[in-house]
Amino acid sequence: MSQDLEYIPLEDAKCLATDILLAAGLSEGHAEAIAKSVVSAQRDECFSHGLWRLLGCVATVSKGKVDPKAVPAIDASAPGIVKVDAKFGFSLLAFREGLPDLIGKANRFGIAAMAINHCYHFSALWPEIEEITEAGLVALAMTPSHSWVAPAGGKKPVFGTNPIAFGWPRPASNPFVFDFATSAAARGEIELHRRAGKPIPLGWAIDSDGNDTADATKAMEGAMLTFGGHKGSALSAMIELMAGPLIADMTSAESMAFDEGAGVAPCHGEIIIALDPKVFLGSGMEQNMRRAEDMFAAITSQGARLPSQRRYEARARNESRGIPVQTSLLEELKSTLASLA
Amino acid sequence: MSQDLEYIPLEDAKCLATDILLAAGLSEGHAEAIAKSVVSAQRDECFSHGLWRLLGCVATVSKGKVDPKAVPAIDASAPGIVKVDAKFGFSLLAFREGLPDLIGKANRFGIAAMAINHCYHFSALWPEIEEITEAGLVALAMTPSHSWVAPAGGKKPVFGTNPIAFGWPRPASNPFVFDFATSAAARGEIELHRRAGKPIPLGWAIDSDGNDTADATKAMEGAMLTFGGHKGSALSAMIELMAGPLIADMTSAESMAFDEGAGVAPCHGEIIIALDPKVFLGSGMEQNMRRAEDMFAAITSQGARLPSQRRYEARARNESRGIPVQTSLLEELKSTLASLA
What keywords are assigned to this protein (chains A, B) (predicted)? Predict the structure, then answer.
């Protein structure tokens, strides 16, 4: 992909994304929710979760796996839980539909969980985390993927790349947000090294015999590793359990089997926990939010970065000059739209 | 400390621990709760959280920091939250007193949180996690400590060693439990290397100029590092926020300042989240618990270990032959008891 960038207005990017998704057969709700997420990622220069993902959405629809017009069904009967059945549609509309109940329950009980089930998932978690922090809540989200990652001490894949994301609302600035895979590297990174014929760093993966490998082809045939050794592996297992069996949905291994080799966006669940600082803190709200700010200042004042700082800097840059899009990607998106029309 | 081990009956270990704690001035409730925790750790051969910690408890009491007879106060007025004010006593009695409310709220709402405030904390989190899984619940616990750990990209300490622990109940075997510090190594490990004049592995710490160091003395003067680079650092920040400002308690930096160089057990808060699979799963309980077992089997069948496997093996060994105690430690504990009597 060429790295020549064009800058297009935010609204144009949204329209292009929405038009492609509608032309691919998605309902309006799905198209809007997905367009919002991928345009936000593109704006923040998270290109791996940006407009490029529209091509994957179109492919996932064309392979007949996803229901492009699925209407999510909400079950909010358990006091502290919102269950949203995405009915084998994409995840983002289900999130949008369930969010008001999640916020309402967190406001009322202090803590609440949302389980999104039976959804095709390809998006970053941080846009969802940001939306929850906008309601003044603390948020934690997890999701499995496909079983590409070996547990510590093992050599066969069990876990997905299993991202975990967290958000903390900040009164006077962008929220504190992180969102990372519990695999040592993204699968796409290894694939890029393979295509370029370049070695991968040791620690990313093992070959099919369980030996460390710098060979990207052998890594793709073997297993990826988690970040942080046995600690990362333990976290990845937690994510499988919390965003799988706990919410009656598939583990990464089951999701991979369900895909039947189609190679589309993985189908599985997602769990989101929201906590309301107002309920936890009452009249101590202001003092404790300041306490958190003191900690952030202790990090940034020594020149270290907060997790999303690069992303927020990109956002600030691009809000005036427009959304950066790779010229070749823009052409591909336009021709995709033309071919669908 | 000599590694010669003696094996003493579980009840004898409990009595010795309780007697020492009572002699040090702790109330019966505190003595029982602490004895249970340190004897469990000793039984499981987690010696760093075992009987050895009694010496630290006695020192913390003798320095006049902790209230040895503090009576925890419970505020369960928010529907999904149990707040337990430990009133500057040790944490374990507060946990024990709040646990029935935490379980009750999780049973009712599906998810609930317990905030323990103003507690002196020295114990492993896994014994608490195990108790929650015994009630059939999934559990997640976090706590700060003292600010010894630098954020990724920084060189000055901000975070504590900040442990995170998780548990998943298993119908037919010991629960799936992990409990690890988000620092790359335990502070005690670095201290042991310093005393032995041995270099520490790179990646554990930096010197006061922010450079990687293998020198344990320079590491103690500089800062420890988190495990897993920027990902571990992000998790450590999350733990500071969730187990600090969110529950109206001190961050690791504040806790260290509060200690005023006394070097006793750190005083801060702890957050525990409990989730009830029965509420999440309803009639799908059995099927989804089996799904989790399938994942555990995929890990163990390839020769990889589950996080607490070594601990459970030690427990099984020691249940019949008795609790292993280092001879020198046993002598020290007995003479401590004699000196307090």
Answer: Oxidoreductase
